[in-house]
Write a structure and sequence with these properties.
By secondary structure, the chain is mainly α. The chain has 19 helices and no strands. Helix 12 runs antiparallel to helix 15 and helix 12 runs parallel beside helix 17. It is a multi-pass membrane protein.
Length: 424
């Protein structure tokens, strides 16, 4: 019987890890195909303007909308995740995100319906942000609240691996389509296929998540005492310091990710004139360094602590930001690849341990709200304006200063980590 119980526990853990990885990969795929299209496609199709730079800035503005929606999604989904449970909330967030992404694939352009096109696009982007606002926190809790003793960081890294997996799927599909289709076909209809294809991935994610049961830690806590009537109010009144510190701690990962991906793609294909397929290939190679460092960070965090690993990663990111701009500005492929690979490798160390770090800041019945709120407010602080500020810096000061945005965000994260150094 003991052997049967052990096998059952092993399969339960595999289902949990698969669900946290696949669901988050789908969410990041949906989120990042928008970021890719915002750099390559949407400026011309949805945001007509007198200059390509103004078009790109407007498109990046729509990209930032989702960051503003994410804290609202964290509040809504966190409320029900802490009161009802993790499973139902994760299923709903995935459906919202996937539905908005699918709708973008059918959206007419500005030439076809005028100003309604960018307006509806922005509304759908806002819906994407709402869904992702509830996704990450629930996926992280699904993993860490099912982890055996001593494995919380390694279980918590599985939702984080969804980011490179989703990125590879998104950019890889854009790369294949760009290679197979002419530019005219790609701009006419080919760009829609990644958005329409999201429906298949969402179905896969739902199929995995509907097979789950509630996490043991949440079920035990709910049986012991009723959850707060309004988790967000309790969080703000009793755990505000932890929420603010957690927000600061998340700033670095968002700044690094969106400058090394969305901004770099737009800058490389417009200002530097590098072929779209070539630059996508560079990013696909660089993102593998992030996947490796997430695994290393999870292993290290279980042997030391998530806070220590995050702090070392942020320290490295401060230095990386100094050399990033000159490497990108060199304009040739090898320095650009080195900049992207270095940035995304360090991204794994400032992102991978967050799945174990943020839930530890809050009691069980406030974890969904607390972790989601801190993570998504950190997205506004570090990521919402990153491509816009980077584009502005280039126009006014030159590319050398772009990396300093990441250095400043990493320094802010170090402040948050110092604030919460009493936590594991």
């Amino acid at each position: 019987m003991a052997g049967t119980s052990g096998i059952g526990e092993m399969w339960r853990h595999k289902r949990v890890l698969a669900a946290s990885l696949i669901g988050t990969a789908v969410e990041f795929y949906d989120f990042y195909i928008y970021a890719t299209a915002a750099s390559l496609i949407f400026p011309a199709l949805f945001f007509p303007s007198s200059s390509p730079s103004a078009q790109l800035m407007a498109s990046y503005g729509s990209l930032a909308l989702a960051f503003l929606a994410r804290p609202l999604g964290a509040a809504v989904f966190g409320h029900y995740g802490d009161r009802i449970g993790r499973k139902a909330t994760l299923v709903t967030s995935l459906m919202l995100m996937g539905g908005c992404t699918l709708a973008i694939g059918f959206l007419p352009t500005h030439q076809q319906i005028g100003f309604w096109a960018p307006l509806i696009l922005c509304l759908l982007r806002f819906g994407q942000g709402l869904g992702l606002g509830g996704e990450w926190g629930g996926a992280a809790l699904l993993a860490v609240e099912n982890a055996p003793p001593g494995w919380r960081a390694r279980f918590g890294m599985f939702p984080q691996l969804g980011a490179p997996v989703g990125f590879i799927a998104a950019n890889g599909l854009f790369l294949v389509l760009g290679t197979m289709l002419s530019d005219a076909d790609f701009y006419a209809w080919g760009w829609r296929l990644p958005f329409l294809g999201s429906s298949v991935l969402v179905f896969l994610g739902l199929w995995v998540r509907l097979k789950l049961t509630e996490t043991p830690e949440f079920a035990a806590a709910k049986a012991e005492a009723p959850p707060p009537a309004v988790p967000l109010a309790t969080l703000l009144s009793s755990h505000l310091g932890a929420a603010i510190a957690g927000t600061f701690a998340c700033a670095a990962c968002f700044a690094i990710y969106y400058i090394a991906t969305a901004f770099a793609l737009g800058y490389g294909t417009t200002t530097l004139g590098i072929d779209r397929s070539t630059f996508l290939s560079l990013q696909l190679g660089a993102i593998l360094f992030m996947a490796v460092s997430i695994v290393l960070a999870g292993w290290w965090a279980d042997r030391a602590s998530p806070t220590r690993v995050l702090a070392w990663g942020c320290g490295g990111a401060v230095l990386m930001g100094i050399v990033f701009g000159p490497l990108i500005g060199a304009g040739t492929l090898l320095p650009i690849f080195l900049a992207l690979a270095l940035a995304l490798f360090l991204m794994g160390f400032v992102y991978g341990p967050l799945g174990a770090y943020l839930p530890a800041l809050f009691p069980i019945q406030l974890r969904y709200t607390g972790a989601s709120f801190a993570f998504n407010l950190g997205g506004i602080l570090g990521g919402a304006l990153a491509p816009i500020v980077a584009t502005w810096l280039i126009a006014t000061q030159g590319v050398a200063l772009v990396g300093l945005y990441m250095s400043v965000a990493a320094a802010i994260s170090l402040i948050g980590l110092w604030w919460t150094s009493r936590y594991p």
